[in-house]
Design goal:
With about 210 residues, the chain is mostly helical. It has one domain. The protein has nine helices and no strands. Helix 3 runs antiparallel to helix 4 and helix 3 runs antiparallel to helix 6. The chain is globular. Its main location: membrane.
Length: about 210
């Protein structure tokens, strides 16, 4: 079981290193949505703070820390080689050309949550809200990629190892969280993610057949 716990902690981060390598090698980001990194950064930041209110498994805490470090690196690589194309958003959120702005937004979000936690941590409902917020965000993880694939009518530039990792990881997590009696939000999040993963698989077949 120790081996499984270690794999749960490190594998989600390892999956993204091929994408990082691909972007550095090609010096452009064609198919990866930086919104995916944004979701993971905010979701895992929230999940870390949630841990202080409800101590879930330590390997899941380590997983969140590693994912934050990995996606800070991936985001840096994306911004360096391919600044995001402009889309109309409030305050141009998450489509800035400067890496430090992304970091500052993440720091601001964490400061806000930490402040709220110190004030409201005695209330169990607040801790539960943190858990559902973290995992609700994570459940939307594949959505930006689904949208980008639809816009491009292609999965070019998006590494299939990430998709395979999402499918295998999310399916495994559903079973793992149930067997480990993890808080309910964990299992619900994984079930929703599996559904979105299936949509990307369908996209892969549809767009490949149109070539």
């Amino acid at each position: 079981m120790i081996v499984v716990d270690v794999l749960v902690a490190i594998l989600p981060s390892i999956l993204y290193f091929e994408q990082i390598y691909y972007i550095i090698k090609s010096k452009e980001n064609i198919g990866y949505s930086i919104d995916t990194s944004g979701i993971l950064l905010f979701a895992n930041s929230t999940r870390i703070i949630f841990w202080f209110g409800e101590h879930y498994q330590i390997n899941l805490l380590i997983q969140s820390i590693l994912l934050i470090l990995t996606h800070l690196l991936l985001l840096y690589v994306c911004i360096r080689y391919s600044p995001p194309a402009y889309q109309s958003r409030y305050l141009d959120f998450w489509q800035w050309n400067k890496y430090y702005v992304y970091v500052l937004s993440l720091i601001s979000y964490n400061c806000l949550l930490i402040g709220l936690y110190f004030i409201l941590h005695r209330y169990h409902i607040f801790v539960n809200i943190l858990g559902y917020l973290a995992l609700g965000l994570e459940a939307t993880l594949p959505i930006p990629q689904i949208i980008k694939n639809y816009q491009q009518k292609s999965l070019e530039g998006f590494k299939y190892t990430i998709l395979l990792g999402w499918i295998a990881g999310d399916s495994f997590k559903v079973v793992y969280f149930i067997l480990q009696s993890s808080p309910l939000p964990f299992a619900l999040c994984s079930i929703i993610q599996v559904t979105f993963d299936i949509i990307i698989i369908i996209q892969a077949f549809l767009y490949k057949s149109k070539k």
